[in-house]
Amino acid sequence: xxxxxxxxxxxxxxxxxxxxxxxxxxxxxxxxxxxxxxxxxxxxxxxxxxxxxxxxxxxxxxxxxxxxxxxxxxxxxxxxxxxxxxxxxxxxxxxxxxxxxxxxxxxxxxxxxxxxxxxxxxxxxxxxxxxxxxxxxxxxxxxxxxxxxxxxxxxxxxxxxxxxxxxxxxxxxxxxxxxxxxxxxxxxxxxxxxxxxxxxxxxxxxxxxxxxxxxxxxxxxxxxxxxxxxxxxxxxxxxxxxxxxxxxxxxxxxxxxxxxxxxxxxxxxxxxxxxxxxxxxxxxxxxxx
Length: 289
Hints:
The chain is mainly alpha-helical and about 290 residues long. It has one domain (about 45-285): MetI-like fold. About 70% of the residues lie in helices and about 0% in strands. The chain has helices at about 5-35, 55-60, 60-95, 100-110, 115-125, 130-140, 150-180, 185-190, 195-205, 210-225, 230-235, 245-255, 260-285; strands at about 40, 50. Strands 1-2 form a two-stranded antiparallel sheet.
């Protein structure tokens, strides 16, 4: 190996060495420590080794099961709706004859860069007992609705909020991918008599399949980590009707009598769920060719 090539390799290793070291210190090391912590109970220096007791406790913890059920409800309802809306918006905003595309693209994407706490606070205010929605209902002669006090409506409000925020984020991925599809494919389809709907399902969706898989997995991970919206809008209520796993982890670490070991156990349960759901999506949506 020549000195020049060896020097280039050393420079390359030098560039990646610092990020690798920092990631190892601030990401991988805490993950390993958290894994060992999940076999202990208590807080601070008063930790006690309990083996797999924390993991067996998960299956008997009614509140954890309720949090998982809530999270799966958000996942099953919100993610498909958001993905489909993002696809439809991207197709509409990719039309060459559409005027004001820049404005509409910005308007739909804008919620994605809005502060999580700020938009969640606004949603909580709009759907509150004396919020805008109830004010409109009362002014129209209807009774006020407990959007945040009735379990199913509270979940619907959370789903509406996260759909509003993240649809534009996913739309950008689809829009960028659509612009890389050769227009001659659509022209050939139109010559053959394909309608707009047929082009969408027979051309657009198959061509965007890798991006749809990517956004589905990322949306799944994001939904399983949902925290800010629920805490700000409903606080996990009414009761535990909207509580998420992330909020339950936070409660065990900082709200209830601190039990860092059990909080770490719940965190790794989320990791397992993410791995399983991502694997299922790869199997279902992956390329079999």
